[in-house]
Design brief:
The chain has about 210 residues and is an alpha/beta fold. About 40% of the residues lie in helices and about 10% in strands.
Length: about 210
């Protein structure tokens, strides 16, 4: 009989360049701690309950592409255990050969993670509630929603710009100033993590992206 799945367990592992969270041994140790596994991985996955889905979210994966042993363990977990699911978030496409030490092209990819119009508006409105002076700025809202086109990173970058400008100036900036800021360098800097950084990519990686 099929096992009845209980509430899923979700853990998030964020890779950080130049730290233990970018090396095979360091990443495996952190993941084992997050999952509360006693044994070394991959054997430790056997300790996870089979009647519960386990989701492992790996963020900023591009910062640990060289940790080949770690990715081999991750792939083995996905291939051998139906209750383990791994979501990899990276600024570089993982489907291409040569981009990562492990070939991901046979695994499901989501290329369009854009928010719907309704979701984008709800996200914007939820944040702006905490900035009363910006409530009713329909021109700014429309401009940002069009610029982001549902991209959550661009949308939150624009919202964050309002918070930053307000915090730095300690005054209620005007809507015209906010609209002008969307065309300034500060906004562009906030978008660096939203898209692949071409300066740090190889030629073949630029072609893939």
């Amino acid at each position: 009989a099929a096992l009845k799945r209980s509430c899923a367990k979700v853990v998030r592992l964020t890779c950080i360049a130049g730290t233990e969270k970018s090396t095979t041994q360091g990443l495996l140790a952190v993941l084992r701690s997050l999952l509360q596994i006693q044994q070394l991985l991959p054997e430790g996955f056997d300790e996870l309950p089979k009647n519960q889905d386990t989701w492992i979210l790996i963020d900023d994966a591009q910062l640990a592409f060289e940790a080949e042993g770690f990715w081999q363990v991750v792939i083995k977990a996905v291939d051998n255990c139906s209750s383990i699911h791994v979501v990899v978030a990276a600024t570089h496409d993982l489907k291409s050969h040569g981009t990562t030490p492990i070939v991901f092209h046979d695994y499901p990819h989501l290329h369009n993670l854009r928010l719907s119009v309704e979701e984008a508006e709800a996200l914007y409105d939820g944040y702006i509630e905490k900035l009363p002076f910006a409530i009713g700025w329909e021109a700014f809202k429309d401009k940002l929603l069009k610029l982001s086109n549902g991209h959550a990173g661009v949308l939150t970058g624009g919202i964050g710009l309002l918070y930053q400008e307000y915090s730095n100036s300690q005054k209620r900036i005007t809507m015209d100033e906010a609209l002008a800021a969307l065309q300034g360098d500060h906004f562009k800097v906030r978008l660096h993590r939203c898209f692949p950084h071409h300066a740090l990519m190889k030629a073949e990686q630029r072609e893939d992206v």
